[in-house]
Amino acid sequence: MNWTSINFDNVANGLxxxxxxxxxxxxxxxxxxxxxxxxxxxxxxGRMVEVAGALIDTKHTxxxxxxxxxxxxxxxxxxxxxxxxxxxxxxxxRALEVNTRALDRxxxxxxxxxxxxxxxxxxxxxxxxxIIRGGGRPR
Amino acid sequence: MFRTNAPTWESLMIWLRxxxxxxxxxxxxxxxxxxxxxxxxxxxxxxxxxxMFDHAVHxxxxxxxxxxxxxxxxxxxxxxxRLLALFINGTFDWFRWTPHLRFLGAFAGGAIWSQFxxxxxxxxxxxxxxxxxVMSYGTLAIVEGVNVFRSSRAVGRWxxxxx
Lengths: 139, 163
Description:
The complex is a heterodimer of chains A (139) and B (163). Helices cover 73% and strands 6% of the residues of chain A. Chain A contains 2 helices and 2 strands. Chain A is rod-shaped, with a radius of gyration of 47 Å. The N and C termini of chain A lie far apart (142 Å). The longest helix of chain B is centred in the first third of the chain and has 43 residues, at 6-48. The A-B interface holds A 8-9, 12-13, 16, 19-20, 23-38, 40, 44-45, 63, 66, 69-70, 73, 77, 80-81, 84-85, 88 and B 2-5, 9, 12-13, 16, 20, 24, 27-28, 61, 103, 107, 110-111, 114-115, 118, 121-122, 125, 141, 145, 148-161.
């Protein structure tokens, strides 16, 4: 075999490709067999603190603090929404008051119209009696 | 009308979730974050100095295989995709393919840095250039090998979860 005809670049590239392929295969196999990621605890650099006999992982405490931070943001958002709702309810109440006053005025106007109509009916009835007494014959 | 500034809050929540996700996964992925730096750095260097390969003998092998502009495009594209994958980071349900993107980024990185190292080695034999770049670029290629292992492990976990 003529060794000088072998291209060094191709050999090196092929070798490196084989190494990467092997690493990929081994990695995928390891990941498939151990689907749970390594715990973010003391093994990953977390610090253990003992509080009144209980073991608390600082990473978990940090995660809890992050969640509390998120909740605070959400509560603030909710507060602003509730303020907006409160403002709109106040506007609605004012509009209902105006509406009620208008209805009151409407009712008193209707009462007056009714009184006047009764007076007109009485006057017409009196007129009819006068006509009968004067010899006329109502049709 | 009843109006809230909901979009602002939602985008803030997305940012907070993204940052929390990056922080949580950082211990396992710090080598991948690290390898974005030389990729962006070389991409930037090729942008600033388009004839960079003319200034050192150990790049002659690279120029033999492709132009500087091609190397720049390949390196920057892989770096940007990798950065995106690391940012999205499996935090959101609408995109669950970040392990695959990370794997592709690591594989591309391994291929790129091995070519840099190989070019320096070839030029050492052919032109007697310095062996230093072989060591430094070789180290980057080895770190990418570690990244290939780690990201393919994530792909394996993903496959287990999906099956």
